[in-house]
Amino acid sequence: MNKDRTVVDATFVSKKGESFFVPWMESPGKTAGLVHNNHQIRCVSIGGQSMSACFISTVVSSRAAESSIISFALKLTGLVAAAEDGFIALQETSVLDLAFDPQHWREEGLWEDPCVRIGWIHGFNTMLQHREAFGFFVRADSINPLLQLQTDASLFVASAANQMLTHLLMFCHPLSSGFNETEVDNKSSSSSITGLKCPNATETDQEGAAVVTEILEFLKRRMLPKEPSQFHQSQQILKLLASILSQAGPSLQNKLLLTVGESLEELVASNYSQLTRPLMDVILAAYSSSCGDAKVPDQIVSRLLSVMLNQRAPSDLIHAAAAFLCSGHNNRIHMEQSACILLLPVDIITSLALLEGNFIVKDHRLSMMEQLKSKTSCISMICISLKYIPRITLMDASCQPCPPAVVVDAVLSLLRLCSGLSPPSPAGCVTMFRNVTGSGKVQKCALEALSALSSSPEVKVMLVEVFTLLIEYLNHPDSDPTVLQKSYQALLKWIGVCTNLSSITNQLKQDLTQVVRKRVCDMRWEVRDSTVEFLGHLAGLPACSTENGGVCNVSQYLLGGCSFTTPLLVEALHDPESYVRASAVSALAQAMTHSWRQGAVPTKEQAEIVTQLLEILSQDTEGFARRAVLQFFITWFSSHPSSTSSPLLLQSVRSVLLQGSADLDWEVKVHTLDLAELLMDQAFLGQHGYTKGLESHPAQPHPYAVTDKQAYTLHTHSGNHTLSSDLDSLVKQGLLSVLLSGLFDCDRPVCLKACRLLIRLKDVLLLRPQETTDAEKTDPELNCELLSQGWAHEIRNVLGTEDRTSGTDAHTVTVNVCDLVKCLDLEERLDVLTRSSDHFYNSPRSLLQDILTASSAHAQQDSQLKEEVIADCY
Amino acid sequence: MKLYCLSGHPTLPCNVLKFKSTTIMLDCGLDTTSVLNFLPLPLVHSPRLSKLPGWISKDGTINLEKELKECAGRVFVDSQPEFCLPEKELLDLSTIDVILISNYHCMMALPYITEHTGFTGTVYATEPTLQIGRLLMEEVVNFMERVPKAQSATSWKNKDMQRMLPGPLKDAVDVWTWKRCYGMQEVNSALSRVQLVGYSQKVELFGAVQVSPLSSGYSLGSSNWIIQSHHEKVAYVSGSSLLTTHPQPMDQSSLKNSDVLILTGLTQMPTANPDGMLGEFCSNLAMTIRAGGNVLVPCYSSGVIYDLLECLYQFIDSANLGTTPFYFISPVANSSLEFSQIFAEWLCHNKQSKVYLPEPPFPHAELIQTNKLKHYPSIHGDFSSDFRQPCVVFTGHPSLRFGDVVHFMELWGKSGLNTIIFTEPDFSYLDALAPYQPLAMKCVYCPIDTRLNFHQVAKLLKEVQPLHVVCPEQYTQPPMTQSHRSDLMLELQPPPMPYRRCSVLNLPFRRRYERVYILPELAQSLVPTEVKPGVSIATVSAVLHSKDNKHTLQSVPKPPPVPPTKKRKRVMEEPPVAPKPLLSGAVPLEAFLATLQKHGITEVKVEETAEGHILHLQAEDTLIQLEEDGTHIVCDNNEPLRTTLRDLVLRFLQKL
């Protein structure tokens, strides 16, 4: 069974289990095990078969049950019946007949609901693990409804039906052809047949053979569309075929290809554009099987592939060639053919003679030129071509129609045409030229291609040309923000790859400086953001070699270094857009990392920046900027050599911890805990009992969070300090307050992180070496103060400190840290926190609804909304 | 219908349309690019300009050192700048009945047309066009008059001399027609002839045609015009914009179904997208200020400046420019800023609705209130005491030849920290800067031209579908500098009719109908006969009365009772000849053949022709041609037969 799918389904079941089982069961504890994985579910199911059976039969026979509950019940039935004894138990109660009878659901009027249909398929699919289940499937004559569902109106249902049909065929074929474990194991690793008991009943063999024949006949019968309305059906059949071919062993593949070979040939010859891609999937699935196995009728497959790459309309040819190139097959002839087809549109538009003297695509040139005159097909073909062009340059040199540098030149020419920077060649067609002029889509695709081409061999000679063009793009007044962002990315890629930048002239450097200076003042925040990010990434690049043979920091060499970059970034800290502020903070971190690593004493300017960052942390209204500030200090702390601890850093960390833990944004709090963890690591690494747990790396950031890709370097404990003094200094830094306030936070990720860190702290405190006395273990000096508000109040309640602190100030209570961590029952808290999860809803409708909502929003042409969506996507 | 083209400038047009006995001038734009050949007029004495060497030809034969000065390899006329007027010789300007003005930039030549030419007609324009046009004229007059130049250079205009001069003076055309700027008296007199009109208001011209302005979306009060009679429609499209800026949006639908569409005033910068340019403007401005430099924006005192200020209003905070002063210096700065706020009905919907809140429609009011924007009539007076640097200065004239801008060029030109940002598209920035070379200050060219581009105009024409399009010849070929850009020209079917300066075009358009009124009593006397369902016709005898291009059919007056005379008697004796009845209908072949047979004509040979049929009556040696609109009977010397046949044919026709 597909591993990913198992996880999703199990989570789904667990959520449903929580939602529906708890009220059902007398003791909620009995359902606690109904989580996490199939195995456990099965155990519980078997243990509580009667309970499950009771639930299932009640739901199945209920007339008032909701479709989502029925869907769940059907899936649960499949899980329970996947084990033979579970199956038998359920069959005894006749609940299976009712549950898997589509007619029953039709009569109830529920079959119309895709939830129920998908529940039926998933249930059956899960159940089909043993021959009893298979026998039940055959006797219930479920193959017909399943084949019908293969072209269901719901894409989810149709896709699930395809999966189940594949599974069924994998399951039946060994039954019908004699079980061959080796074959199955080799090719059907994703099928759930592993562990299947070897069937021996002749009846089952015959039934299996009948099912295989029925499915194959179905494929053959429905593959060819008789009218345009049947294209969808053909597409579905082809998808199924591709899925089977990629999973089946050679014998089933042989059988399959012999059965449907003729239909496939007919379909390939019929030139239906809509079917090009699914057809290619089928052919490539068959082709990959034919490699190295003579049994498969590879002549058919080879012939089909040749036809697809030779005799179709230009737009289909492009798709076929792209599919072949993607498949990773290394047939030399087909590779060369595909490469030529993909280069042809660019060759025609740029008139650069990329394919000069190449006869492979000579016949397609005229028809391709005709197609390129239509704007839609021109842009679509050029974009596909651009997407795959970088792959061509990475192919074996003998298969490449032209050298990679020529390809880079062609992409540059195309980019010039797109922005009107250069006239088209006289040989080019005016209509084609108009199609690409000003097309943002082509510009973006070409810039992506240019980025990818940076890693191709022998292209570094083009650096100056690339540099010049990208600066022109960055300077162009009409470039849209995404185009500018992609230009920056391409520039970074090329600079990153070319370690020798000596060919970059002073004029180019000056132009770059000028354009960056201008773009950082742009009206559009997206552009300012990309520019600031560019400055940060540039500062983070490794050193390059210069014209005098020396080595220099890239940012220093191209832009003049910090004296240019830092003032621009400091200015950006005051940007009205929070994304830009956040990017500026990250970029500053990248720009300063180098000096931190060297342990340089912070300059006055850097001290001012730190003050500004602390201001952002305490005053900025947006979370993005505050999160970035935390990341800044994390980077600083982790890249700073511990031997030369900077007073400015230590002083700032205290403020950061204090403010970060009091923030309202949960991500800021998690980052604060990350910083706290670094402090702990620095203090305790090497101490007995201290483990650098899974948390040594910051938690996975939120997708919008500003991330720092740099690895964290941790410094081992120097051993000069005693544990007590370390602990004391940590408490003074405010570490304990951060951890304790996190523990009582309302956001689960914060609690979880704080809890894990506290456990590690507890381990250090309580698992000291043997020689340490008990008195030292409960270090009476190590105290912390608790106020009577918020989390501290909670702790006081837990500790019951109200009684023990008579005589002291009623608002502040001093407690011993060791006592405290012992009393908090951290392990149990961790257990509870780990087990609970955020709400997660999975249904065949939800995604579809999302898509429909999004598309209807676009259909309204509400430009403001559209802009918001774009901004979000950005 | 004829079109006389008096200006070759595509965005400063001046055309005269003769249509149905009216003579209508469409715009009178003034081509001011001629001033680029002159030396700047400094407000305060400029040692640099006064020290420029005079020009003497290389061989020393021509000495014009008093009139011409040389600066950085180019020669400039040291005299009061002069303008290139619309052609005055092509037709008698006194015959012009009306002048229709489409926007305030296209009326700057008005005093040259209406004064001292015998012009007696009326000028039609919207109120903002008149008021802002007056401001622009006042400003130019002020710029010129406050720095009077005693000398007037004319020797260089001598044809033989001019031929020997270096370019571009050598290539300047019609230099003899160039004129100095008019005075305030002429401005006032010219503008007193303006009659105000509102959008869609219909103005009758002598009963012959109706003219009506439509919103063109380009500037405050800018309009396109519809000139129509009962059966013909001419659309005049000048300076229009589809972008959402401050003016009311363009009215496109009223341009539909024109017989002729005269298209002028497209963007001068087809490759510069106004949004991109606005972005460039802002980022260059911010960049200069951050580096401690000053920004100079040479601009007109009305128009794009409102949008620039609005854009800056939003941009100031994001670029941390809150403390930078913005100065607007023009003799009419105050009026311009205030006028813009009071023409609410001419503004776009968003701005109109602000007025009801009530809020000023343009945010520059807030900039003024918060002291971020300050305006002064000139650099003298208050400005000199308030002046703080670094700052941004908006001032005219965009040609850099006169106005306060000349002073700032002299002041800031030497420092590389300062930037001049050109936003007006009317002048080549390189030519404008020529007399200031060598120049250290940075120069940024971001012309903002919101007028229609070729893509938009193609879409517009597809929508409004005129039968014929007339346009300046510049629009029928790609721009000279981008000859490969075939997308930067008009490609229409049928191709547009190009015009150039001094062209006279016969518009391919024939009037086929005229509306005639019929008096009720005459109408009552008519006896209509239905010729086919829904169509009745009647013959009428009447007197046609034409006055003020209005035609009326009146009853024939009864003859006055005159004393009987002999002659009269004789007339009375003859019965009045009744007009021959009109015939209508068609002769159906089969039925006609059957009738012929009844009358004993049996030998008929029928031949089919392109127009109908020919019947050959063989026995009678007679031919009958039956056609859609006529029947001919050809029979020699057999009058009875002809009469019989005629009567048989008449049986099938209706008499009116």
From TrEMBL, chain A:
Name the UniProt record assigns to this protein: BRCA1-associated ATM activator 1
Keywords: Cytoplasm
Coiled-coil residue spans: none
Any single GO CC term annotated in Swiss-Prot or TrEMBL for this entry: cytoplasm
Compartment(s) where it occurs, according to its Swiss-Prot or TrEMBL record: Cytoplasm
Family affiliation: Belongs to the BRAT1 family.
Record GO biological process: cell population proliferation; DNA damage response
Automatic annotation (TrEMBL), chain B:
Matches recorded under InterPro entries: Beta_Casp (IPR022712), Integrator_9su (IPR027074), IntS9-like_C (IPR048660), Metallo-B-lactamas (IPR001279), RibonucZ/Hydroxyglut_hydro (IPR036866)
Domain of life: Eukaryota
Annotated Gene Ontology cellular component terms: cytosol; INTAC complex; integrator complex
One Pfam entry name: IntS9_C
Region (Disordered): 549-579
Gene3D superfamilies referenced in this protein's UniProt entry, alphabetically: 3.40.50.10890, Ribonuclease Z/Hydroxyacylglutathione hydrolase-like
GO-annotated biological processes: negative regulation of transmembrane receptor protein serine/threonine kinase signaling pathway; regulation of cellular response to growth factor stimulus; RNA polymerase II transcription initiation surveillance; snRNA 3'-end processing
Keyword terms of this UniProt record: Cytoplasm, Nucleus
Domain Beta-Casp: 305-433
Location in or out of the cell: Cytoplasm; Nucleus
Family: Belongs to the metallo-beta-lactamase superfamily. RNA-metabolizing metallo-beta-lactamase-like family. INTS9 subfamily.
This protein's name: Integrator complex subunit 9
Native source species: Oryzias javanicus (Javanese ricefish)
